[in-house]
Design a protein that fits this description.
This protein has about 350 residues and is of the alpha+beta class. The chain is built from ten helices and 17 strands. Helix content is about 30%, strand content about 30%. A hairpin with a 3-residue loop joins strand 5 and strand 6. Helix 1 runs parallel beside helix 4 and helix 4 crosses helix 5. The radius of gyration is 18 Å and the shape is globular.
């Protein structure tokens, strides 16, 4: 087992100031240095086709993101085009991932499965003062989110389904950020997912104060919403969008169902996903399908739980307390994975 950690970043202010602050943090960080090494070794890393098209979509769905990207560019002394390309979540490819999500009437629990070498190790709490809802959750591509909760009690997570048949559009991480910052309810999030352009094929799982959960099957071609409290890595309606091999995803889904999942409380649901001796937690890190974090969100209590690795007691964030003006004292979340490659925010020369 090796030690891993996520840095906790918290900020209240405008999107431009938030971007600038993050750029200042990135300047001398391992994260940016390691990411630049990855970019240099991946010839396909730039997929932005038209900056103006991306800008138009941001103006339509989350115009404040333009200010955050400008703040990042200014702090890093980058051309704005580079900030769009590396942090914009538009037209950029990522490694495939696994993931399992389970919800109850009071909670959402989610395993994020991927390769540790692409994981940023940033847990972000942000309360904008210009526009948008306050959010809490892990970051991806700096500006995006892998999952999270907002001040209105809307929780979101997503699961990879397929990369084949991709088109011009936003990646899952930026779509997740847009959902959390601009939508107050499941219904609003579903409407957004039906309107926004999707680059690749993902399931988006949504729950809110009502306790209802929807799985939204979204591709570049179609978007369909259905009620369900379980989601892994395959579609049940848009089955033509599935990968050729879905057996492992179906097995994880069945393992959750066998636990009478609709009767599980938060503690049992968390243990089902986080315990290494269960059938859900994965250590297939080389295949970009190992469980890196387990996150849980409680919309009504406005609390977020987070752990790195398996068999871990989660760190609890009182998001309601933060919204009341009290900063968290948690600076870093530590955990262990049975793997050798560090997160991108860690010194990879060791």
């Amino acid at each position: 087992m090796n030690q891993y950690y996520s840095d906790v970043i918290q900020f209240t202010g405008s999107h431009y100031d938030f971007g600038y602050m993050q750029g200042e943090l990135l300047k001398d960080s391992y994260l940016l240095k390691n990411r630049q090494k990855q970019w240099a070794s991946q010839r396909r890393r730039h997929f932005i086709i038209d900056i103006e098209t991306a800008r138009e979509h941001f103006l339509n769905f989350i115009s404040s993101m333009l200010d955050e990207l400008q703040g990042l560019a200014d702090a890093l002394n980058w051309p704005i085009e580079d900030a769009y390309r590396e942090f914009g979540g538009y037209y950029v490819e990522y490694e495939r991932s696994g993931c399992s999500i389970l919800t109850g009437s009071e909670f959402m629990v989610r395993n994020y499965d991927s390769h540790p070498g692409y994981y940023e190790g940033r847990y972000v709490i942000y309360q904008p003062t210009d526009s948008g809802y306050a959010t809490i959750g892990p970051s991806m591509q700096i500006t995006g989110r892998t999952d999270g909760l907002n001040e209105k009690g809307l929780a979101m997570g997503y699961n990879f389904v397929n990369r084949v048949g991709s088109a011009d559009g936003f990646l899952c991480n930026m779509i997740g950020r847009i959902i959390l910052e601009t939508c107050a309810t499941v219904e609003e999030a579903i409407d957004l997912l039906k309107e926004i352009p999707h680059r690749t094929t993902f399931s988006y799982v949504l729950t809110d104060l009502s306790g209802e959960t929807y799985v939204v099957e979204a591709s570049a071609r179609r978007v369909v919403a259905r009620k369900s409290n379980i989601s892994t890595n395959h579609f049940e309606v848009l089955t033509e969008e599935n990968r050729y091999r879905t057996q492992e995803s179906i097995q994880r889904q069945e393992a959750i169902k066998e636990q009478n999942s609709d009767q599980l409380n938060l503690i049992k649901a968390y243990q089902l996903l986080n315990n290494r001796d269960q059938a859900i937690f994965s250590e297939k890190y080389d295949a970009s399908a190992g469980t890196i974090h387990t996150a849980a969100y409680l919309p009504k209590e406005k609390k977020a739980l987070f752990a790195i690795g398996g068999n871990r007691m989660p760190v609890t964030f009182d998001f309601a307390d933060y919204l009341a003006g009290n900063r968290t004292n948690i600076k870093r979340i530590r955990g262990k994975l049975d793997f050798h490659t560090p997160f991108v925010n860690m010194n990879q020369d060791k």
